[in-house]
Amino acid sequence: MSSTAPTPSPAQPTPPTPPVSPAGDELRCTDADRDRVIDLLKASYADGRLDQAEFDLRFDLTMKAKTYAALEPITRDLVAQPTPPPAAAKAARDLLPPPTTEERLLAALAQATTWVPVVVGPAILYYTVGKRSEFVKHHAAGALNLQLTLLAVTIVTFGLGGALYGIAWILATAFAVIALAGAPLRQPWVLPLFGRGGPYEKKPE
């Protein structure tokens, strides 16, 4: 093998792949491994990525290399490094800051209004606090949807659906506890009249 740099040419074939250690960097490399590094150095010189002095220095290091650990730095900046896979996109709710204590209390209050099924309470929270807090808006919308669903069932069944309000009190208590814990709540079985499309309403990716 000669240290004389090749004459640059307009078109060069694809540079050879540098040797890769089969098990560990401290393993001894072979003449074939050094030859592949020299070929890559020649191609890089021809491409203009190395000047004469750099080529001669790396050629000399290659000839003296005994292990893969000694060969790897010689071509480290001459070969493309593998690109890590893109990180999975986060769900919209994961991009929001965690709810504050005040937000959790107001969200729990919105859910607790179902104990007295009047839509005024959650509606006020939805249209006021909900403008600055997606978490409160999410739970206020859930309370509104639940109450309106119960009202619709009661009307359709000519009052018989009113018996469901007993169950609704239990649900309201459970939902208020969930809100206090700072967790979102999905209610696919109620009429989605409010809150549709918000970050907490979207399914996780």
Order of helices and strands: HHHHHHH
Domains, number: 2
Question: What is the number of strand segments?
Answer: 0
Q: Give the overall average pLDDT.
A: 79
N-C termini distance = 56 Å
Which structural class should the secondary elements be placed in? mainly alpha
Task: Give structural notes.
The protein is 46% helix and 0% strand. With 205 residues, it is an all-alpha fold. The protein has 2 domains: 1-83, no CATH class; 92-180, no CATH class. The mean pLDDT is 79. Pfam families: DUF1707, MamF_MmsF. It is found in: Membrane. The chain crosses the membrane at residues 105-129. Residues 1-26 are annotated as: Disordered.
What brief labels describe this structure?
205 residues, 7 helices, 2 domains, MamF_MmsF, mainly alpha, transmembrane, rod-shaped, DUF1707 domain-containing protein, membrane, 46% helix
In brief:
By secondary structure, the chain is mostly helical. It has helices at residues 31-47, 52-64, 68-71, 101-112, 120-127, 134-156, 164-180.
